[in-house]
């Protein structure tokens, strides 16, 4: 419903490189800390998980909720961010 | 619970086999994905979705959302949209890809909506395509719960906005003919002020058709020219009444040439008949007819057009033609004013003008010639010379 965030646009606008996981849309410092504790410190690691789950939205969201206790909106934002990035650069 | 223990003890390969056994996607089982996959297997085995998303995610969770949105849109949206949507969907053969595309399109649509309304229309059409394609593909496959549809409410709202945009586009189509009709008469209106001479040219061409018919046909007793003229006039009035009240102000000028063009239905038939009849008649007429036509015609035409449709303009325009017509103008205006109330009354007016016209036109011609060539002066001069010669001849004693 609401427009995309500036964070989303910044991430989708360019290759992720070595961006931190907190650069992903929907991932703030809190969730970023949890993901980092789980070993997902870089955005490309989360992207790897997203690809391992074969871009399945529900699986990815469930994984996000399980790993970093993300809310539905946060998981959805992160999924959309990665999905659109893959559509653009993958 | 026994299922839980059983699944937890299974290895990664066994879990993958279980997933395939229950129709779940063959996601590679790793330490990071193991827990998620076990959850799904539990839901698949028990048949009771722990989470709404899980139950939906068995086959294609994103599809459900899009499907619902499309279902909502389908009643509002027309079937025509589906065809382009399918074609767009065909480009991406895989269902997963299609679902992803639909999601992307939605995201773009959101961006565009925030930016500008125009981009919204284009993006919305695209998103409709994706959603509808998904509907077509997945509607039979999945039977998602209504709950998912609620989650996708925002996307649906986008589709609704799309439908609204489409409806507006239809309204535009309806409006276009009106604008075209209005534009044509406006062009005529502009012509007058710019070049009065041009108006004179246009007017005499139209009028001679009426007057010559009055001379010969009235004498011969033919009613054709009158009928044709009445048809034209009547059509113009009727059409004006049919259209919006604003149109008639412009349309009256169309009655001559524009009557056939803007009013597609009935008017075109009488218009060509006029021209054909009018042209040969004008050509067969004597030189008088031609000379008379422009003078009288100009007077009649301007008051007709102006008085019928544009009252404020009446005073200025007819004066430009000639001062001789002033005597004729007041009666004509009176007739037209009476005719305004009843458009069909025009014809009798034309007849009345035609019957009176032979005498009035001859007078007008004489007056115009007097003014132009000073005939009276020359006539008096000639008569005086003749009288002088006569007196000289009579008085001279040479005889």
UniProtKB/TrEMBL annotation, chain A:
Swiss-Prot/TrEMBL keywords: Nucleus
Gene Ontology BP term (one): chromosome organization
Compartment(s) where it occurs, according to its Swiss-Prot or TrEMBL record: Nucleus
UniProt-listed InterPro entries: BAF (IPR051387), BAF_prot (IPR004122), BAF_sf (IPR036617)
Gene Ontology cellular component list: condensed chromosome; nucleus
GO molecular function: DNA binding
Chief location: nucleus
Keyword Nucleus: yes
Pfam families: SAM_BAF
Protein name: Barrier-to-autointegration factor
Organism: Drosophila erecta
Gene giving rise to this polypeptide: Dere\GG10507
From TrEMBL, chain B:
Residues in LEM domain copies: 4-48
Residue spans crossing the bilayer: 377-395
Biased composition regions of type Acidic residues, renumbered to the chain: 319-329
Superkingdom field: Eukaryota
Record flagged with keyword Metal-binding: no
InterPro entries found in the cross-reference section: LEM/LEM-like_dom_sf, LEM_dom
Keywords: Membrane, Transmembrane, Transmembrane helix
Cellular component annotations (GO), alphabetically ordered: cytoplasm; membrane; nuclear envelope; nucleoplasm
Record field: compositional bias (Polar residues): 68-77, 90-99
Listed name of the protein: GG17352
The species this protein was found in: Drosophila erecta (Fruit fly)
